[in-house]
Amino acid sequence: MEGNSSDLECGARDMNGLSLNSYSSGLQAQLQRDLDRQHLLSDRPRTGVYENVISEGVEGIEHQERYERLLRRAQVEDLTEVSGIGCLYQSGVDRLGRPVIVFCGKWFPAQNIDLEKALLYLIKLLDPIVKGDYVISYFHTLTSTNNYPSLHWLREVYSVLPYKYKKNLKAFYIVHPTFWTKMMTWWFTTFMAPAIKAKVHSLPGVEHLYSAITKDQLEIPAYITEYDMATNGLHYFNPVPTAS
């Protein structure tokens, strides 16, 4: 996790309407279940190499078939319920010419949306993009508990998406992170997605993004820039182009 002690002190209070004590209890229980599962897997009798290859091969085929079924549905079903919200879209390219995907957390009504259709829209948008390198910018600006999807759904989405999504993701930027996002990021990249852990970067302000993405290639809602200026001021960071 990134951040200093002030972030943790701030997190001890109510963050975006989320009780830290209740959330921490749930997170601790989830972590313990994951640790117990790892112990069970490590204690399981080892089968032969041939059996493992067959098992993983069958599972991989079933996984691919499931994704292809979802992709076919995404291409024919009416997803305007999700696309019309405007919370997920492509916004230009970064300094290396890689497509930039923007996700605005405040506009994602996690508690009042068909999450299956949300997954289908995600697949419809990203499938042609993830054939090559790409980056994601997630803006946690002014989100509330109504915008937070469940851990179960996040786990489901990650398990459904094929390897090319993880392999070709080159950077995942979290802008305006809170204590909640830092805890979630740590848990998710530790137990669910260690392969992308080094690709996740928490940034305190929008201008930090300009090192990787020029301003004219980043289309974001006005509420994000207004919040950023109110919180960080003007010209608080001098971007230096990077190749990460």
CATH class of the domain at 63-230: Alpha Beta
Question: Radius of gyration from the CA trace?
Answer: 19 Å
Low-confidence stretches: 1-24, 39-56
**Which class do the helix and strand fractions yield?**
alpha/beta
**Cα separation of the termini:** 19 Å
Strand content: 5-15%
Query: Helical region count?
Result: 9
Mean pLDDT: 82
What is the helix fraction of residues, given as a range? 40-55%
Protein name: Protein GDAP2 homolog isoform X3
Organism: Drosophila mauritiana (Fruit fly)
Domain CRAL-TRIO: 75-232
Pfam families: CRAL_TRIO_2 (PF13716)
Notes on the protein architecture:
The protein has a 5-stranded mixed beta sheet. The chain has helices spanning 5-11, 20-43, 49-76, 80-83, 115-126, 151-160, 163-167, 179-192, 222-232, and strands at residues 88-93, 99-104, 134-139, 169-175, 200-203. β4 (169-175), α8 (179-192) and β5 form a beta-alpha-beta unit. The protein contains 9 helices and 5 strands; from the N terminus they run ααααββαβααβαβα. It has a domain at 63-230: Phosphatidylinositol Transfer Protein Sec14p. Helices cover 47% and strands 12% of the residues. The protein is an alpha/beta fold and 244 residues long. The protein starts with a helix and ends in a 12-residue tail after the last helix. α3 crosses α5 (115-126). Residues 1-24 and 39-56 have low confidence and may be disordered.
